[in-house]
Each structure stands twice: as C-alpha cells, then as structure tokens.
Design a protein that fits this description.
It is a single chain. The chain has 208 residues and is an alpha/beta fold. The chain has seven helices and ten strands. Strand 1 and strand 2 form a beta hairpin. The radius of gyration is 17 Å and the shape is globular.
Amino acid sequence: MLETDSLEFHYGEAARFVFPDVRCASGETLLILGNSGSGKTTLLNLMALLLTPARGEIRINGTGTTALPLSQLPGFRARNIGLVFQKPYFVNALNVRDNLLMANYFAGNPPDKARVNHLAESLGFSALLDKRITELSGGEQQRVGIARALMNSAKLILADEPTSALDDLNCGRVADLLEAQAREYGAALVIVTHDQRLKSRFPSQISL
C-alpha cells in the first residue's frame, strides 16, 4: 500500500536527510521513531505529498506519486491520504460537523453525514458536533482532527503524534479506532510518535 525507495530531502546544504525504505501493507501499522531533528516530520510530510523529495520514489496504492503533475496532487491526496496533524487546523467559522464534511468536499465526494455521526460516536464527541471549533479543548480538537482524516476511508493514514494531548482512556480509544479503520478499509497506518503507550502496542517500528 505504501512503499518508499531511496528517499532524500535537502534543506539547502546544511541539512540533508537520507531515509530508510518504508513498507507498510494494507491493514498494517508502522511506527516511525527518532530524536528531535532526526527527520521524522520531514519523512511524514514527504509521504503526505506535502514536500517533494530531492531523490527517490513514493508509491501509494500502486501509484508512483513523484510523476504526478502538481495540479493532480491535492485531489490525489484528499482521496487517498488521511492526515492527522499534531496541531490540527480547522475553519474556525464553521462548527465541528461542517469541518468534517469539508473533507468530503475536497475529495470530490458527496457529504457523508452518517459517517460524521459514526466517527463522532466512536471518538466520543457526538455532543460537540454543533459547537464551533474554538469552543473545544485541545484534546477534543485532536479527536475531531482524527475523525476528519478518516472521513474518506483513506488508503493511507498518516498520523503525527495523534495521542500526545490525550489521557490514557482516549489514547486507547484513538489507537483502537485508527487500527480498526486500517483493517476495515485496507489502509496502511503510519504513526510518528514519542508516546510510550503506542511504542508498547505496535511492534513494527522504524527508528531514524
């Protein structure tokens, strides 16, 4: 589902990252570990097609992405990749429900209100759907961000510290949901994390 080969990224001459090859099949979970400055977030952004590699190839669901025209990348990303950011970004003028439905819009899919309700119930924020994003706590926003990443049944789920702001109960709930989604929809799940709770749970790991 996700394959990278010989990936490199350069921040000018000062910082050059050469990454190990990544393989993550449908339904599998892979953790990416490493100290600050090791390139974890850079690798995640490369796999999310937010950065262009200086060298190498990224294949998602059988498609070689480095040859895709720039004009096609946003649509491909929206249809195939679910992104969970460490700090989620929303449209503050919209309520939680409409922020989730925007994910369908950007992928060119019809609005799926039933999926909104299902994800909100699974992640424990059904009572918040009509609230503005600015009315939510940091942990609540993180759960909404995870739900948004799952709105289009992505084939690749990329998560940057998805449990960092969560207590043990919600950490387990989020890990369960991400893992279940990967299995149900045949998605590859890649998590960048420092969370020891996740390190103990998922044995497939790459250290940078």
